[in-house]
């Protein structure tokens, strides 16, 4: 930019005037330039943050007006009765300029003076379970009960100990997410008092004990995720009353008992993930009542029983059906080929026998089919187009009495399905002759 001499002098004068004015305002009338905010609220904010990010952080120096012209990343405010109050506090490396926790972190009592807080989130904040383990303070949560709707502690391996029963006071809470921390002990029954919860995620900790019966009071729940803990025992009967549930993930625990009879009423459920537990008692017909299910995942449970006995046609929304390693016996029912939205069908490592229904290949969206590790017999009747489309996502190995007809391969470069042997000439002729083959 080109500035003539005169203009330059003028510009310098204006600059001086601006600096002088601002300086005046700053010195004489500090509160006029800042938003109205109770000094106590402001001091509590600074101290609470300092507890997380370290003593070097001087809030009053760096952010003299946290709800006005010096906003803090992760902090937001609302006006109530003409005064600013803190409503959101999020600490953790989300944005470039986020507040990030120090190694010597602490919950300061001042945190609980922020009574207008609606949302508190601590992400990747308590890092070291060995050098600096931190427990959740036990007592003061009642002070936040009036406004807190969302509480989230995520990816904090150094956050250890139990969930304080006083969380039960946070009656307004709609979302409680304690994901991937180092928390232990039993889940307090008082969590069942949080009847406004839509989302309850306690996954990826080391919780033990049983799922509290009081969870049956959480009538507004849409998402319940208790996966990746060490919970044991039976499912509370009352869980079947949570009819608003959309997603139920209890995978990777040590839960046991019969399934379905009492949870069949979860008619809006779209995801049911019970993988890696000890559920038993077979696949009852009640599973078919959960007509909204899109993902039904039960792999690695000693369920047992037959898969044939169910009329899968009813489950028209199923996209993922994972019954891998569930001790299933019997033949694969042709009704599975009526599930037109199916993309993933896992039936591997069971005790399935008999022939495969060739119609399975006609499922329009199927892109993974695992049948390995069974005792299926006869000739695979799928086309080379099907094998080409599926590639490695067709698994039929470890079925010693299964073979594929070499004649169905049009070119010599097309390989047969992995781990399945070509049929002996006589075997195949017999297959064609009988329409199907027994062994
Ligand atoms: C923060 O800075 C202000 C002035 O900039 C100073 O008066 C105050 O003592 C400092 N506070 C801390 C805790 O260091
Ligand atoms: C939870 O509710 C029960 C009654 O259902 C009550 O006895 C208990 O004090 C409540 N706990 C909390 C922490 O609110
Ligand atoms: C199930 O979903 C339907 C449609 O979204 C909704 O109208 C109904 O209220 C839901 N049922 C429950 C118990 O939430
Ligand atoms: C399959 O059945 C055989 C004999 O009934 C049994 O020994 C074996 O453990 C079963 N395998 C599985 C994976 O259930
Ligand atoms: C597989 O099935 C055949 C009969 O179809 C039976 O003879 C054989 O014992 C079975 N193998 C296993 C491991 O169960």
TrEMBL record:
GO terms for biological process: response to other organism. Belongs to the RLP family. This is Piriformospora indica-insensitive protein 2. It is found in: Cell membrane. Coiled coil: none annotated. Residues 1-25 form the signal peptide. Keywords: Cell membrane, Leucine-rich repeat, Membrane, Receptor, Repeat, Signal. Pfam families: LRR_1, LRR_8. Gene3D superfamilies: Ribonuclease Inhibitor (3.80.10.10). GO terms for cellular component: plasma membrane.
């Amino acid at each position: 930019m080109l500035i003539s001499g005169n203009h330059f002098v003028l510009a310098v004068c204006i600059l001086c005037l601006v600096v002088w004015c601002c300086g005046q305002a700053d010195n004489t009338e500090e509160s006029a330039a800042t938003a109205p905010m109770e000094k106590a609220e402001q001091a509590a904010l600074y101290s609470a943050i300092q507890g997380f990010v370290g003593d070097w952080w001087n809030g009053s120096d760096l952010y003299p007006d946290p709800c006005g012209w010096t906003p803090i990343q992760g902090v937001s405010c609302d006006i109530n009765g003409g005064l600013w109050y803190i409503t959101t506090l999020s600490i953790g490396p989300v944005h470039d300029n986020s507040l990030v926790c120090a190694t010597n972190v602490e919950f300061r009592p001042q945190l609980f003076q922020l009574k207008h807080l609606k949302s508190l989130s601590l992400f990747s904040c308590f890092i070291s379970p060995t050098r600096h383990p931190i427990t959740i303070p036990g007592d003061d949560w009642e002070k936040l009960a009036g406004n807190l709707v969302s509480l989230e502690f995520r990816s904090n391996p150094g956050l250890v100990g139990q969930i304080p029963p006083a969380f039960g006071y946070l009656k307004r809470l709609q979302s409680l997410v304690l994901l991937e921390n180092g928390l232990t002990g039993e889940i307090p029954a008082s969590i069942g008092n949080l009847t406004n919860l839509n989302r309850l995620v306690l996954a990826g900790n080391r919780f033990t004990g049983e799922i509290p019966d009081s969870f049956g009071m959480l009538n507004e729940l849409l998402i319940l995720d208790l996966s990746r803990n060490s919970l044991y025992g039976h499912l509370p009967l009352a869980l079947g009353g949570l009819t608003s549930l959309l997603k139920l993930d209890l995978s990777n625990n040590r839960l046991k008992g019969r399934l379905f009879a009492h949870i069949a009423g979860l008619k809006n459920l779209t995801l049911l993930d019970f993988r890696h537990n000890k559920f038993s008692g077979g696949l009852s017909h009640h599973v078919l009542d959960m007509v909204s299910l899109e993902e039904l995942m039960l792999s690695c449970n000693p369920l047992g029983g037959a898969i044939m006995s169910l009329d899968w046609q009813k489950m028209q929304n199923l996209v993922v059906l994972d019954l891998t390693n569930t001790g299933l016996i019997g033949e694969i029912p042709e009704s599975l080929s009526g599930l037109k939205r199916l993309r993933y069908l896992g039936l591997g490592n069971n005790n399935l026998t008999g022939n495969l229904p060739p119609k399975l290949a006609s499922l329009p969206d199927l892109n993974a089919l695992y049948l390995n590790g069974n005792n299926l017999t006869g000739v695979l009747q799928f086309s080379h187009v099907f094998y080409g489309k599926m590639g490695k996502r067709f698994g039929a190995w470890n079925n010693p009495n299964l073979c594929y007809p070499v004649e169905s391969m049009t070119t010599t470069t097309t390989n047969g399905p992995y781990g399945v042997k070509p049929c002996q000439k006589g075997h195949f002729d017999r297959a064609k002759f009988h329409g199907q083959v027994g062994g």
